[in-house]
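Assemble and predict.
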Amino acid sequence: MAREYETVIGLEVHVELATKTKIFCGCSTAFGAEPNTQICPVCTGMPGSLPVLNRQVLEYAIAVGLATDCEIARYAKFDRKNYFYPDNPQNYQISQLYLPICRNGGVEIQTADGGVKKVGIHEIHMEEDAGKLIHDEWGDCSLVDYNRSGVPLIEIVSEPDMRSAEEVIAYLEKLRLIIQYLGASDCKLQEGSMRADVNLSVREIGTREFGTRTEMKNLNSFKAISRAIEGETERQIDLLESGEKVIQETRRWDDAKGESYAMRSKEDAQDYRYFPDPDLVPIAVSDEMLEEIRAKQPEFRTEKRKRYREEFGIPDYDIEIITASKYMADLFEAAAAICGQPKKVSNWLMGETLRLMKEREVEAEDLRFSPENLAKLITLTDAGTINSSVAKEVFEAMFEENADPEKYVEEKGLKNVNDEGALRKTVEEVIAANPQSVADYRGGKEKAIGFLVGQTMKAMKGKADPAAVNRMLKELL
Amino acid sequence: MANIISDETIDYVGILAKLELSGEEREQAKSDMGRMLDYIDKLGELDTADVEPMSHVFPVQNVFRGDVVTNGDEREALLANAPEQKDGMFVVPKTFE
């Protein structure tokens, strides 16, 4: 009988924090600046420079720890992790090994069978990001941009509690949502503000010991993570089945090829010779500091769901979708507050917004239209200034480029013709041109009026309020 | 000397520290390291059971800065420290993807 295996997975998740400045110096962290225009002696590792911890980094790290049920260390410090690579100008990365800021936490995830499972968090520590290496196509050299060097990261290390790609994705989605709700990061995998390394081993079901694990890097989408987990599971089982051994190593996932390969052992010299960083003084977390951060914790999804139900009276299904993204929830609340029509805001989000997001493969975080403009669109429709099909056209322009609906309607001449005289004239013409439908209607076929409404709308190039057309038709018939 | 550093150990330390040692330097380093370890062993003779581990030499805690941008563009000044530069970036030996 074939042996049955199970996959054992633990994750190391790096999250870039949304601070304005770097972790140890006053350089900006703004994305997309010209190379090396956001650097200083500290983040380029100049001798004699002195790093000083950004307090906001500590607060975000503690906030994430509190939200993931961690114990917050009352005494923490930084250590140096030594390695030589040109993206790391100091030849060491400032990180935390001995006394990390958070330990022993966990989050709950939904499993495929509808149950709930806890994924343990071993620790969360603070550290600095490295610079970016650019390969020079023309010369026999590489180029370094240190703008990212010193950008604050937290690394969230899970316990090896996950058993499938689905559980890994559920865990990552849960972490992402918590961190986005905290405003501690935007957690975009594609842009690298959230990065996950997958530690994976396989073992025969029923075995107590873990198998030898590998670590996989370069996973920048949920899909890539799923595929990499499936690929690596298969590779390790094949090795074991053919009597070979899994080697503990770091592997790089090539998503285009759908396979991983071992990174050169030099890159992977796992002897970091950590030692305490003498430039940075220890951190003592007081009761007051902890209370202050606890008091600032935002409303998380569970509380938001409850409040939406009580306050807005929108369907549970809508609440689920809207609160699944902090960005969407903020957009909803802001637009509802401006126009006072939560149900209509929800309808636009659940209908056209989701449809276009799916069609154009856009994430909630990348939506361009402002809550102000969505509120304006709803107000324009309510006032009968534009009809619903025009509203959809306007919405598409908002979705594309955050068009201002008032200006857009004005410029494109999309306003309903509210001129009684003009409407009456068109309706009269339509009645005269469609004797058959008129006869049908008069003969008791209520539905025939629909055709006449359609003809009138067409004659008015869509710029009429269908309700007004309907009224006028009934009056004249 | 109680601690003898093997050739393998000194070669490994050399790799980690990116050092290339001549035959003579290598023997000297082996002997120096052995003596350092002897000294650490000596410290180990002390009874430290009731001593709190020291994590920093200064009795100072909680030195923070606010999250405020204080540095501007210093690219030219910082690139001036580099042996070679190109397109506003530091030139380094070729690294592999």
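Residues 22 and 151 of chain A are 5 Å apart (CA to CA).
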